[in-house]
Structures
1.
Amino acid sequence: MFEFILPDLGEGIAEGEILKWYVDEGGDVIEDAPLMDVETDKAAVTIPSPRGGHVHALKGKVGDIVNVGDVVVVIDDGSGEAAAAEEAVAHDTFAHPDEPAAAAPAAEAPPAAQPGVRRPVPAAPATRRLARKLKVDINLVTPSGPGGRVTPEDVHRFAGQGPSAPAVPAAAATDHVPARAVAGDTAFAEFAAHASATIPFLEIEPLPDFAVEGPVEVEKLRSIRRKVARKMVTSMALVPHVAHMDEADVTDLDAFRRKEKERRAGGAGEKLTLLSFVIKAVTAGLKEAPSFNASLDPFREEIVYKKYYNIGFAADTGRGLVVPVVNGTDTKSIVQIADHVYDKAVRAREGTLPADEMRGGTFTITNIGPLGGTALMPTINYPEVAILAMGKVQKKPVVRDGEIVIRKMLPLTLAFDHRIADGADAARFVAELVRQLSDPNLLLLET
Amino acid sequence: MEDLPTRPYGLDDQLLRGVREERAPRFRLYRWEGVAVVIGRGGKQQLELDRAALAADRVPLYRRPGGGCAVVLDPGNLVVSVGLPLPGIGGITSAFTHLSDWFRAALADCGVPGVRQRGVSDLALDDRKLGGSCIHRSRDLLYYSTTLLVDPDLDLVARYLPHPPREPEYRAGRPHGEFMGSLRGMGLIDDRAAFASSLKAACAESLPAAWERSRGPGDGNH
């Protein structure tokens, strides 16, 4: 049997809608003949069959959404059951003919104790090529990436350790069931049983039929919404979050900003926002507190301190939440940062910001202020270790030199990874932020 | 009302055959003589078309290989179609970007600067749409086609196409007449024929470079 996985179609394309099957279950297919049409956000794609044989099963119907990495069709090509997983690895991305396919070492059969059905795991083409190069059966590798994807680090780790000593129980590697697949009773039971066995007290039940109670509308979880879901679940599952909150007096800074913005109307810096000052202040703070500009590798048990400062900012678009990244904020002036933020935010809303401008962030800021709200508890943008949330600037009565005065106060919440930093680190980091934002002169020294 | 019969959009078949045979990029620029509506590969007639109006006016309906929403073609449009031999079935995103850059540069060479790619696949000047693109990817071949609004009859668009089921953010709910522009209507060109001629020359000159860029390290060209 040959399990054909939907291959990578292009950067940022993670899924597509099945438009047409050219083959039927039970029928035959010829190698290279059209197999299916899939429509992505950008294009319609006619996918040819990489194998000839008897169509054993179609894993979706017209109108279904399929992910890159999903098995879409099972073809009986006469290779037998045992070769199925290796065949999928060798051919699912139309690898170049001169790339050697991985031959599974005879001694590396999957452990007999693994429960559930063995599934091809999702992974980027480059990761699959790496696995082939290292002669690793990628389907035996424990995935650590978002959505259960195998990362290059996973492959390297597996190659170093061998299948007999995975970092986590092998069942996790082979039992991964995408949430989307938890529709049939068998798959759901398998998923729930594994999850419950892994996490004590966790109980997962199918949703009730809400339509019994009243009218409902069902919408597929697609595109950015699905990516956000994966990122958030990954972050909340892997990272012990702690939050530290404070307020910054931005009265003077706001006055300065408004004056500068007016002065710069029509030129560079005309979109001088509070966010751009906060980005600069955060950058200064990260230099003093490198823990918040790091990542934790739980498998190597190493902390990776980044010596560069790429600050992401959450942008609400009509299509969902995205995080454009301003690179090198330590080398940019506040005015330059403001111009970058404005440009990237516009393109993000239009949907024209390329994926590589939303990667490589070392710290994220989310500004909910314009929409209101005094405080929020943000979720860390994994694998970063901290995120700063800005609330709404409000005039408040505060005590200064023994007197009650009205000041503009900016609520700040720092959520951080407690594996890397402690409450005292966060308190010092936020206190420095508050100090910088309360005195624009300090910030200007950073430009 | 039942779906109307569609015909395959075969105007570029010869172009694509040539690309497959010669393993070299090809493009063509042409104008539609009559009025027709073209629906995307996965387009749903009940959502995208006023079928009654199309049937009443006996407007032919075509289904193109690429994706996207329905468009109206009339003599006021220019269609530019490109076939690129590219290995595998990946690399869609980078090829799309390179071809969009190529076409916008050609427009700039012909006196229409400032056109940007907006939404998923629109060509726009400020907030007015001036064209739309689609891609069809099959093994070792990428087909890109863009329709340029030179001097179209926008009343026909309003007659045959209801508000689309999905729209780019910059459309902001605007009806066709307020959202779509035209090169002529916006005063960007005077002579349609001269413009078409110079656009063809500009496209031809720079296509090999665009092809080279599309073949370079991209996003999954296996």
2.
Amino acid sequence: MNNNVKSVREPLFHISKRGDVSLKRQILTRVIAVAAGLILGSIVCTIAYGSSPFDFLYYLVEGNFKPFDNFWEMIKKTALLLMIGLALIPAFKMKYWNLGGNGQILMGGLITIICMINLGDTVPDGVVWMIMLLAAMLVGAIWAVIPALFKAFFKTNETLFTLMMNYIAVGLVAYAIKKIGGKESTGTIGVVQSGQLPELGHSVVLILIFAIIITLFITFYIKSSKHGYEVSLVGDSENTARYGGINVKKTIIRTLILSGAICGIVGFLLAGSINHTIVTEETMANSGFTAFTAIIVVWIAHNNPLATIGVSFGVIFINNGMMRVQSSLSITEKTVPDMIIGIMYLIIIACEFFITFRIKFNKKKNETIKTVEEVK
Amino acid sequence: MNVPGLVFGGIAIGIVFLYGSVGEIITEKSGHLNLGIPGIMCMGTAGGMFGVSNYMGMLSNTKSASLLLILLFGIVFAFLFAAVGGAIYALLTVSFKANQNVVGLAVTTFGAGFAQFFIKKFVTTKFLSRASKIVRNFINFEIKSSFGVPIKYQYGVLSCLAIILALACALFFKKTKKGLHLRAIGENPATADAVGINVNLYKYIAIIVGSGIAGLGGLYYVVEYNNGTFDNVLTIQAFGWLAVALVIFTMWRSDFAIFGSFVFGMLYVFNGNLTGTSSLATQELIKLLPYVMTIIVLIITSIFGSKNVQPPASLGLNYFREDR
């Protein structure tokens, strides 16, 4: 005889997906996450710089409203981030990871600047603006459609491809900067005076107009158009889509042309209306509205165009506020805002888990199962 | 063209990419595309500088510093700091099942910000150049450059360690059972789970160890390559993105990555070794060659490649047992 005593312990908890999540719960969880992020941020500042936690929150808010120009700055940046996010939504709905937004924006901006320099004084302004817009949309679309073509026909991994396209765009912009402004060898083009977009009273107006048009368009496109339906079907299951008679290749290519064109528009606005010059990505990253930020924004917003407005606003609010926190608490490290924004991203990303999943703790019961092996 | 400078200078900087890409290969083999590597390398830099400067600070006379202890402190702290970054990424993607690209980008934002903050606040950089002299003094030789001046080249222990790690990693995936398990998880986690492999445990270990190794790249850059000086996290971040590119370029093979990193390194130092005066604009075009080459490899392998040179099949997808 041989007695084997085996103890089978149940795991401490198990995870399951929630069915329907009430809106109340969703909002509550996110509010707690944002609050936790803010508290953690203020704790970091308190420990590192000995400021009171309330100073942190005060400057965070003040940075967005005082002086009043900062408020317009916030609106402007929110609109830009929103537009990039909206450009990414159709692609992300299709589960096509377009990480190439930065490159598409840069190329759109580059062609805009080239148009401004070459056509600015020779052609009537209205015509130049139209050419700039169309050229930026075209180039942005081309930059997005190259990886899309390979994805559609050869299943080339689009995440990696679009990521690389960003750096090629950065390199081309650096090349163009040296080529255009080379003789002064300052490494910059300088402000281009000709062909600037009209102010329309305030520099925020034009950007808002574009943002509103694009928001309405994308909301309609995703929610009510046939194309939008096809996009989400391809995202859910490519095979089902194909079985339903959808041309998957065509859908991928068409969607990415749209995505790239909108990114091109953002580049057009950045170059033509805000900066009047072009800079490589490094400088752009510091202004807080890159496509990488937009990727996080869209994911937090669950590909919902209207939610994207709110999340973009929140991200820019904290971004702008952190700059004031940094200057007011005389923090010399310029990257402290990045660190605290990074912490907030991570907490908000983590909170999504508690919205979609449920953790069930198992009751403690160590069942002892006795197995008796009979020996002949 | 200064050929020795190109080759030996290229190898020296290539080691940074090699550390990053070996780490990323281990992570990607488990099915996780870690875009946090640039930030994690920054964290490794911060940790390594912290460890080495603290050790040097403890000594009464920095001349008596021992090579072994410098390396020990540097490697342990660089690995730990980077592993913390990796652990955050692993927690959010493996357990919390958040999207890998999103978490990766957030970790990069955090890691770069944290590293710059930490180095400025807690690291005394004055001892680092002394430590660097000791670390570099391992392989020494002089070669006459094309300009006619003899240039001294030095490779330290960390350069050798990178190559050893890359080879060991290749052997691990090819020859060991654990390596096979990890590859299986990257290809099809559900099948691996069915066979009884602890998928989540493997993923955690792969991501954390991979991140730690990538972090050593930051230590190498500051303490060995750059004479103990650190300028900016943006430089380290750029190396991180090159390391991600290198993984694709070498088709997820860490032994190929040794040569791949030298190629990338040579392209990186190409401009500095030109004898003729080339225009600044053309130099910018040379800088983007690694990315173009990476894309070409990606396209060619996706069209013609056999199964061995493809990305791991479940790369970028999280595994949840209850999903069908």
3.
Amino acid sequence: MDDHHHDRNFDALVIGGGIAGLQAALDLGDQGFTVAVIERDASVGGKMIRLSKVFPTLDCASCITTPKMAAAAHHDRITLFTYCDLKSLQRQNGRVHAKVVQRPRYVNADKCIGCRQCEYACPVMVPDPEQGGFSATKAIAIPFSNAIPQVAVLDPRHCMLCGRCERACPTGAVDYFQQPQPFSLTAGTAVVTTGFEMTAIADKPQYGFGKVPNLIDALQMERLLAPHGPYNRVLRPSDGKAPDSIAYIQCAGSRDKSMGLPYCSRVCCMYAIKQAMLLSGALPLADITIYYMDIRAFGKGYEQFFQNAQAMGINFVKAKVAAVEAGPDGAVRLHYEAQDGEGVTTADHDLAVLSLGLVPAWDPSGICPLTTGADRFIHTPRPKLGPVQTGLAGIFVAGAAAGPKDIVDTIAEAGNAAMAAGQYLTAMSPSAASRAAVA
Amino acid sequence: MTTASRPKGDKILVLATESCAYPGADSVGQAHSSYPANVYILRVKAPALFPERFYLDCFDKGIGGIIVMSCGEECPYEGAYHALAKRLDRVYQEMKARDIDIRRLRLTAICTVCNRAFLNEVNQMNAVVSELSD
Amino acid sequence: MTQANEKPDAPAAKIGVYICHCGGNISDHMDVEAVRRRAENLPGVTVARTNMFMCSDPGQEQIAEDLKNGTVNRVVVASCAPSLHEATFRGAIRRAGANPYIYEHANIREQVSWVHHGEAATEKAAVLVAAATAKAGRLKPLTPIRVPATRHATVIGAGVAGLSAARDLAARGIAVTLVEKSDALGGQLAALDRIAPTGDRAADLVNELAAAVLGHPGITVLTRTEVIATDGYIGNFKLTLRRRPPEGASTADARYVPFQGVRPPEPSDAPSGELTVETGAIILATGFRSYQPRPGEYGFGEFSPVITLPALVRKMAERPAKGRLLQIDGRPIRSVAMIHCVGSRQIPGIHPEDESGHLNEYCSRVCCTATLDAADRIRRNHPGTRVYELYRDIRTYGRGQEELYEQAARDGVVFLRFEADNAPQVTTAAPGEGFALKVKVADTLTFGETLEVPADLVVLATGMEPNDVSDLVEMMKLPVGMDRFLLEVHPKLRPVEMPVGGIFVAGTCQAPFDVTEACNTAGAAAVKAAALLADGQVELDPFVAEVDVDRCRGTGACVDACLNPGALALVEMEVGGRTVQRAQVTPALCLGCGACVAVCPENAIDVCGMTLGQYEAMVDAILET
């Protein structure tokens, strides 16, 4: 791994270093091709490294993601470029050209040894986005414990330039004057693995997000459940009480035309069931209710997982929650139409979780002439036999960039994208292929 | 080598095959089930590796019980299970000759998801070992 | 009581012990510092450290530093199950310039902190660390075995996954033999009409893939062929195939047969009988079969208007007609009831097991969308035919599928939802009622009201079952899950790999998939095979038997006990001026099972990396700690 590699020509570019990008990069690198991974965040690992455990095996997410992150970082033929914005991705003369700007970390990545002395010295506490905003980090910090690379990042919005980090740093890596670094990369092919973000629920006033204190989103719950989470146990944010009753609101930002999101986000049923199972382990006495429209447990072992959750006593209520508001004593009040004939019903829960849907994390417009579908995910013109093909020859797509997808399906698709990209390189440049063959 | 020595300890040794029983034991852990802490699991490719005297030496040294957790009929090494079963028969004979309770040695098949079977086996062996040490 | 031939290592072992907190997964349940202190005092241990995440970069870096500066020359990591991170730490050691086989793993999460707590956990972790340390002191550096690999792959099954994998591998310059049991290419895809939600014609997809495969000079297509024996190992498999002779005359051209697939050209000199193929990797793409309802299940086999969804699709495609009413077998259909989850999502205690004692507890993934597509097609082409969908959950999860669900509702498909323990009942209608059948259902969408749906046709949305590949499972030692599908090593870490090196899975032999997903798994399997065969040689683990020729007396006991013919043999060699017989191992064939170790009267053979002496030392450590 080397952010300042001098060879800026590669066989393949991978845009996005989440689980899809890492798998695609590894499968390309293992075939003998050289790969550059361009990642927007300060660490690779994507959404997966931020999760607690993953369904249906309940493996800890970090345990599955870290080996792939480390394998990519240490791979002879893979170069990771983190904290980078992609400004342009174009095809010219049979090559793919990328213009990239590395944002300033205000820390020299070559000098930083990840010792965290700067973090300990920094007097400024800021809400930690990596912990769902529930706990604090410093204005200069390693992004999270298992981040790759282990390089500190200074947040200029909160830094007060007191100079303590600079003095604390044993290697003189802090650089308040660091500038954005533009650079160019060229390659024979590219794989777009830009992933997803969660639905912006501010678009949905009925869920009153931001105003209802104990209504959190599922990624925040992932942090509460994570072994290295903000409180080391599950507490509700408003008053630190251990919740006795927890609600999951399914299809919050999916299958919802009022938000312009008519599609199914494919993972929310399973992650809600998974979180409910983990919660029933963490809070054995709590009542957990999942309000759902259809339970979509379609993958290998998923239905059995769902059946186990029912056997564990998790309540499944078929109902679309119409509105959420703050109730008494920090409760979250749900209004829903029950299917048992009682009409519009209300229920109070100590804590409620919005099972938010998935929206694309990247809009190619103005950067790359890739087309998107009505759902704004990358358009795949041949979804049956060529699910990783885009409208542009030589540019492939995998994972949630081409529509919501769980981790298992994402990893398979990333492998397929690496296969398609490898084939394209073989066809375009037999020399690259033969170099790969003897690598 | 001493004879007629009765194991005194309560430590239970599990010889678990790397393709079936060892991941099965991990699966018990993933389910956060609990079992006696005197159970020590050694990962083996195939228990066919161990000669008769290995088992007898273990008892001599003070191991209270041994469970051989094989893959059973799913064994990836064709014929290994058969060879193992025959060998353990000879170990049983030798245990009788040395006045070691033969319940201290069990051969069983555990798969990667056999959580309940795994727990049964270790709990039963634990009961045998504590009964015999009374 | 360590075995006498266990030679102490020349330079004394300097063991580093590294104990992981696993972010609380371990450290919340035991006193990690106490484990570290006890490890520090063990014989041979030069350093004992802890880390929040040993698998993280800083954790690995710690090991590398200690190796590089000579503090340690043997490594023990106490962390999660070795299946997760043994390879990670071996990799870290290799990158530090050391031999990766000086490593031993102590499993103190899955086998300690997640099953025991408090002092008992601390004690057991300390004992396991001591045992691992005792073994580490006796580890020798090993060299991986490199064997030449045949740049050829064999794909078994020519459905969409097999065709796709064969095409992909050939495009990467790897020769492929594609083996298919039936006489046509296309598998279950060929049995379909249009593929929802895009409306692609199955025939077009089959033709496109078959043309690519038949047109590629690097692909040998063998239909009517079965694998009857396998031999060899990763990179160097030898398959024995049996090919049935063609039934018809020889033909020069490929031919598409509706609902069967593409029959390849049949030259007069085509091979038949027994063939052998030398191949470096195997991709299993043996696919699924459609669930066949039990006699009487929802009236199937009892009432002729009860048919399966595949039968409906075929009947509609073979006689495409518009008109107010759908016609099936010459009968006008005024009302269709389509029942979901037939042979899928079965629940113990509610659904009866099949004759072999199995339940299909899984969701078959594709039936909801396929049923909705058929329903909507009926509503659009035959507006007089009413369509009822009786479902448990509608699982239109994929891109464009939810839109199809909405469209079907807009087009007047009526949805009724039932609970698994209160399934619809199909009975004949009374003579005066005008319809052939009626379906009684307690509809939870209308508060559990019992409704009677009149039906001229009942369609059962049957799920997927894996094809019976018990012969291949037996021959290749493949693991099968509780659901009877082939079981991958790990769904996320190694999702297309079988535990036997060089064997991969693609498509619906692993789990139900739609066409898109089957293609993705095929590409994922092909890319693994391509990476494996990229440079014409395969690197294998060195955990194989090794003979100590100084001790060997040539008794041949090991050769008799050996489970893999060819791996061990007695050979003549010169020792001290005399020609004697001694055992010799062929490493690439050795399974490393150790059956030879147990029988050697001279203790002259052992398995590298897991010697009897190492196990004995671990037992001693367990007893003495």
